[in-house]
Amino acid sequence: MPVDELAPNDPRVEHKFKSFGDIKYHYIIGKPQGQPAATILLIHGWPDLGFGWRCQVPYLLSLGLQVIVPDMLGYGQTSAPESPEEYTMKKMSAHMAAIVKDHTDQPIILGGHDWGGFFVWRMTAYYPELIRAVFSICVPYMPPSPVKLSLEDIVKKMPNFTYQLQFASGEAERIVDKSPERIRGLMNGFFGGRTPDGQGPVRVEVGIIEENLERIGPATLVSKEVIDFYVQEHSRHGFHGPCNWYRTRDLNGEDDLELAKKDPRIKIPAMLVMGEKDAALPPHLADGQEKFFEAGLKKEFVPGAGHWLMVESPDLINKYIGEFAKSVLGDELKASL
């Protein structure tokens, strides 16, 4: 049976906005029948949208959870400031904390994917009192460094992050923002589309391959209607805002110097889910992570899947999140698992 997923204007969720000065966030909130057992906040990555969690929201509502899913800064109906300085983990954590406090006075479960997966570890450090459990899809925990590392330093240590140099340089957005069809090619490629000779839109050792974008065929993992929605939403601002996330290495590194003075261990229950065939974030990166987790780390693995685990393996991801939520909430959660 296909997984139940939200449509772009699904009546099961409300669309909300919250402003912080000139910055406005768009997010959806779904409320279960009756009193929520807890609230879960889901953070997407690059180049996704809150819509990227559409296969998880109905399931989580069915468990009795209140679900909040923002378009993160630079994306969709949320503002896309020009300056990378607005995109630090510290500033965006404060924005997310304020949105959460509008809807609950209880600590939440926090989950993220891709850049959202990196984000959730940092938000947990900034707002420990707000978060009762945390999970990341595809992104292991990297403790704050007491020494500032440039993006070039990181790439030397982890060559599979070489693509980030292109994303940070301005070249990636120049390539993609030339036309809506380029955005379509990129998103089709991320969701399974290939060129006639079998190539995708990105190589981790290069970045976006410009000549491939207009030769990529339809997505295989999602419908044309889903791709249409991504093209519509990414066309609002273009890719400068999303690529700003890759320009924050020094800014976040500065903030990390302060965080690094504290115990780096995560003190709440945590889960890490890795995909077998993720080219940028291979599963071996999760080796040895347990030492950073005082309350235990639940490690899960999705065989045969790449990076887009929420749509490649929605049933399995829902199962993992559901089991994790049940382990955290116990009898508070509906017995529908």
Q: How large is the count of helical segments?
A: 12
**What is the CA-CA span between the terminal residues?**
17 Å
Major beta sheet summary: 8 strands, mixed
Low-confidence stretches: none
Look at the structure and give the mean pLDDT.
Answer: 96
The backbone outline, from C-alpha atoms, is: globular
Helix content percent band: 25-40%
The helix/strand series, from N terminus to C terminus, equals EEEHEHEHEHHHHEEHHHEEHH
Any idea what the radius of gyration is?
A: 19 Å
Q: Looking across the biggest beta sheet, what order are the strands in?
A: 1-2-4-3-5-6-9-10
Index terms:
337 residues, alpha/beta, two-stranded antiparallel ribbon, 12 helices, 10 strands, 17% strand, globular
Descriptive account of the structure:
This protein is of the alpha/beta class and 337 residues long. 33% of the residues lie in helices and 17% in strands. It contains twelve helices and ten strands. The protein has an eight-stranded mixed β-sheet, sandwiched between helices. Strands 7-8 form a two-stranded antiparallel ribbon. Helix 2 crosses helix 3 and helix 7 packs across helix 8. The protein starts with 13 loop residues before the first strand and ends in an 8-residue tail after the last helix.
Task: Set down the secondary structure blueprint.
Blueprint: E1 14-20, E2 23-30, E3 38-43, H1 57-62, E4 65-70, H2 89-101, E5 108-113, H3 115-126, E6 131-137, H4 151-157, H5 163-169, H6 171-176, H7 180-190, E7 202-203, E8 207-208, H8 224-237, H9 240-244, H10 249-259, E9 270-275, E10 297-302, H11 309-312, H12 314-329
Parallel strand pairs: 3-4, 3-5, 5-6, 6-9, 9-10
Antiparallel strand pairs: 1-2, 2-4, 7-8
Helix pairs in contact: 2-3, 7-8
